[in-house]
Amino acid sequence: MTARAADRARYDRATAHLDAPVAIVDLDAFDANADDLVRRAGGKPIRVASKSVRCRALLERVLARDGFQGIMSFTLAESLWLARSGFDDVLLAYPSADRAGYAELAADPKLAAAVTVMVDDVAQLDLIDAARGDGREVVRVCLELDTSLRLLGGRVRVGARRSPLHSPAEVAELARAVARRPGFRVVGIMAYEGHIAGVGDAIAGRPLRSRAVRLMQAAARRELAERRAAVVRAVRAVVPELEFVNGGGTGSVQHTAAEDAVTEIAAGSGLYVPRLFDNYTSFSGRPAALFAQPVVRRPGVGVVTVLGGGYPASGAAGRDRLPVPYLPEGLRYDPQEGPGEVQTPLLGSAADDLLIGDKVWFRHAKAGELCERFDVLHLVAGDAVTDTVPTYRGEGRTFL
After folding, report:
1. Which of 191, 279, 364, 382 could staple 145 via S-S, CB 3.0–4.6 A?
2. How far is CA 357 from CA 12, 235, 306, in A?
3. Reported confidence tier of residue 208, pLDDT bands at 50, 70, 90
4. Averaged over 359-364, what is the pLDDT?
5. What is the distance between the alpha carbons of residues 220 and 214, in angstroms, rounded to a whole number?
6. What is the pLDDT of residues 255-264, one digit of tens each?
7. Phi and psi at residue 181, in whole multiples of 5°?
8. Is beta strand 184-191 parallel, antiparallel or unpaired with respect to 156-158?
């Protein structure tokens, strides 16, 4: 029996009492992935990206482990909810236009102490000030650095379009603007190198593209390490009491941790290890989050149909954004239909061994987005469900 077949047997036994659709997290794999992230971080704390987890119970589980410290959130409403729930170190990774949220933040000493907001433009400070109302708490601010690699005098750009702040001078100037402004305090710098951390460099069947990605990432790492260090020096000249410099992501943990200027690493997808993180030379994780759909039809030889399953992930549309049938091994989509909203035909010899009501296990393309489809996650240890915990959706929280 292969390792994957053994996993399928465990998951089927653990969930035999549950009807599909159902979502699970394999705690043995989750904890092993957490340990591997800590090893790769080389002693620097890991800030957990909540958008890749979207389950308070699992956030609490990982933050209770040595090597993890703080949350990186994705909306202001989520940040405030987490802070009210007892999480005392929440870094909002994206600028917000949530006026009601800013009013609440500025009026509550506990929230203001726990939550740090992201800023890359003076106009965002204006919006916060206009939203304060009577709130006079000091707002903790993190400045975001654009990490993109610019070539040929800026005519070629590699990397996500995020912050407009690219040079040390630009980031330092915004730090000075915040320092001059009553009611704000710069406490950190963030730089997310998505073109390094979030792009696989070992693409199956694409050796030339994989080599090109590795060459690009090596050049981007060198350039960013030098520029990030210069940015930190420039900002510390303005804000000597800077508390943290956050960088990285699941795919670049050990590389980012090696930079002296970086004090903490961000990671989250590496806990669940969705399918987009299969294509890396720098690490290999264990799939921990899966969902199962029930077989409801057997249209013919070598074909079964499962209920639903069309759960595409965000990003540029493409096959890599689709879930993949994982267990049993050997199933594939019908190219004329793909994964559907209400039914999904699956082809392959493995289909002939499946009966009506059997479960087919899938892996989602991205990590936390799976939780937007399910109210609960069943936590599996060995071949038993040891707990059932709500996702954000299950707690009635849909933040985006």
Report:
1. 191
2. 12, 60, 9
3. confident
4. 98
5. 10
6. 999 999 999 9
7. -100, 120
8. unpaired
For residues 123 and 129, is the Cβ–Cβ distance under 8 A?
no
Question: Distance between CA atoms of 64 and 273, rounded to whole angstroms?
Answer: 20
3-state secondary structure at position 246:
strand
Instruction: Decide which of 205 and 76 is more confident.
Output: 76
Q: What percent of the chain has pLDDT over 70?
A: 100
CB atoms within 10 A of CB 48: 25
What per-residue confidence (pLDDT) applies to 157? Answer: 80
Per-residue DSSP letter, 19: P
* Residues whose CB falls within 8 Å of the CB of residue 230, separated by 6 or more in sequence, listed in order: 168
CB atoms within 10 A of CB 326: 19
Q: Round to whole Å and give the CA distance between 105 and 228.
A: 30
**Beta strands 324-327; 244-247: pairing state:** unpaired
With contact defined as beta carbons under 8 Å apart, do 306 and 293 qualify? yes
Distance between CA atoms of 51 and 39, rounded to whole angstroms? 22
Query: Could you tell me the pLDDT band of residue 160, with boundaries at 50, 70 and 90?
Result: confident
For 210-263, the pLDDT digits (tens) are 787 888 887 788 888 899 999 999 999 999 999 999 999 998 999 999 999 999
Cα 30 to Cα 64: distance, rounded to the nearest angstrom: 13
Greatest extent of the chain over all pairs of C-alpha atoms, in Å: 72
Residues in the chain: 400
> What is the spatial distance between Cα 117 and Cα 82, in angstroms, rounded to a whole number?
14
Range name among 43-57, 137-151, 293-307 with the lowest pLDDT average? 137-151
Name the β-bridge partners of 90: 71, 115
**Which SS3 state, helix, strand or coil, does residue 144 take?**
strand
Burial 185-224 (b: 16+ CB within 10 A, else e): ebbbbbbbbebbbbbbbbbeeeeeebeebeebbeebbeeb
Report the amino acid identity of residue 54: R
Cα-trace Rg, the chain: 22
Nearest to 27 by CA among 348, 290, 343: 290
What distance in Å separates the CA atoms of residue 151 and residue 140, rounded to the nearest whole number? 34
- Average pLDDT, whole number, for the chain? 94
